[in-house]
Write a structure and sequence with these properties.
73% of the residues lie in helices and 0% in strands. The chain is an all-alpha fold and 118 residues long. The chain has a single domain, classed as Butyryl-CoA Dehydrogenase, subunit A, domain 3 (Up-down Bundle), CATH 1.20.140.10. Helix 1 packs antiparallel against helix 2 and helix 2 packs across helix 4. The longest helix is centred in the first third of the chain and has 32 residues. It starts with 8 loop residues before the first helix and ends with a helix. It binds flavin-adenine dinucleotide. Flavin-adenine dinucleotide binds next to helix 4.
């Protein structure tokens, strides 16, 4: 796309739909990996992967639902499409099992420990 060319609303929405699908599949694979590790090596070894999905999936859901609300305009904020309720549910999952920051701190600690042992 040439610099300065106006971007149509349709292009923006299509980009967001594509990005949403990419983010959903990334989250799905991250979740399957965590689940597989929990089954094979146990929850203790899989604690970084568990923390990662607790951050990644609700954040992904918030972004995807937020884009859907934006595409629907003001109607997306009401009760007709269920998007506002879906957003509220996804948003509370960024707190309910511990805030994002706590999970990120744990991931960072585990990451640093890996490298300090090397
Ligand atoms: C719908 C819902 C269901 C819940 N269900 C349960 C449940 O079943 N069992 C249960 O035990 N609890 C449950 N909770 C509580 C939930 O775990 C807490 O709300 C959450 O841990 C945040 O604690 P707080 O609300 O006291 O906020 P605070 O601890 O005051 O945190 C406020 C903000 O401060 C920051 N923060 C806090 N701690 C840190 C830290 N260590 N490092 C960096 N930043 C930090 C974060 O930005 C955080 O969002 C639930 C909460 C909700 C909203």
């Amino acid at each position: 796309m040439a610099f300065g060319k106006p971007v149509s609303e349709q292009t923006v929405t299509q980009e967001r739909i594509a990005e949403s699908r990419i983010m959903i599949e990334q989250s799905r694979l991250l979740t399957l990996n965590a689940a597989s590790m929990m089954d094979t090596v146990g929850n203790r070894v899989a604690k970084a992967e568990i923390a990662m999905i607790k951050v990644a999936v609700p954040n992904m859901a918030c972004q995807v639902i937020d884009w859907a609300i934006q595409a629907h305009g003001g109607a997306g904020t009401g009760n007709d499409f269920g998007l506002a309720a879906a957003y509220a549910t996804a948003r509370l999952l960024r707190l309910a099992d511990g805030p994002d920051e706590v999970h990120r701190n744990q991931i960072a600690r585990l990451e640093l420990r890996k490298h300090s042992n090397a």
